[in-house]
Amino acid sequence: MTYDLVGSINPKITLCRPICWKWHRKCGHQWAVACAVSLQWATREDELQNTNLGMKYFWLLALLATLFLAPLTGRAQIDTTRGRYYQPRFRQVTVQRDVEFAQATTFLGRTQTLYMDVYQPAGDTVRRRPLIVLAHEGGFLTGTRDDAIMTALCTRLAKLGYVTASIDYRLYFFPFDTVGIGRAAVRATQDMRAAIRFFRHDAATARKYRVHPQYIFVGGSSAGGFMSLLTAYMDKPAEVPAYLGLADLGGLEGTGGNPRYSSRPRGVVNMCGALADLRWLQPGDVPVCNIHGTRDGLIPYSKGHVGSPLPAQRVYGGGAISARATAVGVPNVLRRLRGAGHVPYSVEPVYLDTVFTTARDFLRPLLGAGAPGPLLAAALKPQPRAVALLVPRRVLLVKPLSLESRLVPVVSIPQAAASDSSQFAPSNSNEQQSARPPEPSLPPTNPASEPVPNNAPASTSKPR
């Protein structure tokens, strides 16, 4: 006997066909299939006599639950209404310190337990929240997860509604050369990936931290910036230089636990970090926010070398990373800290405010479903500010006094210069000398090198 999904040659089932198609129009194809299958199982009397009835109802309920819950899970999003994740919605933050998230092997071959501090908004009732995993600075030699910068950023972002975590990672390396520091960077990146997997495992099991597994971001300062960039973009074993011995280190993911879960972040906040190879950044990669001082003497803003006491390693800073991201179509934001050196926010609070607001504005548009669209560029790309144009004024050029002459000839530049603006007409001998002496430190200005804007208002004064 042959059956189809919405009917059969059994007259009892055939009579139910209109009901199924009515459900199809109302609730969609999935409910029509479920209705038809349930009607078939309920009316096939010859099968029910030979099969355990309880098992059939069990599988029926499982089928209905799968059809109903699967679409809802895929469409879950982050609620950004009422200013959440942009304005401080919470006054207090709870901090859970010394949360163990992994165990890893140090460069000496010993086992190290890695801890993190988890910051959560106090009194929050949202069931699934975005997470930001941050890593401190220190050149893979020093630093702690509770330093002032990490504490301030984690606290301020948690007041917006995020869950934030400042993590430990393995420090120290030997020998002190390019290979040693490269292997240290790989080990630290493995630790950041282990932290991401820890939270994804928790989201799938205990849900203690109520983190949304699809909205996990990474970031860091200096060495932590290197880690966050490597976590997002060095995602193929072939991209790791062979001399680092990736297999001996445990591969890209390391041995930090929860291997069944992904360590891919949704976005990167890089503060004064760099990449060793721009080719790691490919089309389709996650968005990146780069915050970098233009006069950084340690990690170059554009491109240069690091590790002067060591065999120098060529790296590409925030400016070059953003240029590469734009070229390959990866959404990105570049915040130039003009005239600033390395990690200026560690000494100047105003720079820390800039870092916080830049990260906040970068992250919030990414809290939606699917890939970030034009909203990211519209909300984050800084627009050029209007520049005030100085109205051209008359300039008096005074010839220095000499022993032979005590008279100072004065010339004036007309407001509307002739085609050859380098030719000045001599002034009238009755014109008085300017009461204000010229600035000796300023050289004479060649008007030809500074053209007057076409839309500048014409002066009504005339040379005497």
UniProtKB/TrEMBL annotation:
Residues 437-446 have a biased composition (Pro residues). InterPro entries: AB_hydrolase_fold, BD-FAE-like_dom, GDXG_lipolytic_enzyme. SUPFAM superfamilies: alpha/beta-Hydrolases (SSF53474). Pfam families: BD-FAE (PF20434). Residues 418-435 have a biased composition (Polar residues). It comes from the Bacteria. Residues 116-236 form the BD-FAE-like domain. Keywords: Hydrolase, Membrane, Transmembrane, Transmembrane helix. Residues 417-464 are annotated as: Disordered. PANTHER family: AB HYDROLASE SUPERFAMILY PROTEIN C4A8.06C. This is BD-FAE-like domain-containing protein. It comes from Hymenobacter wooponensis.
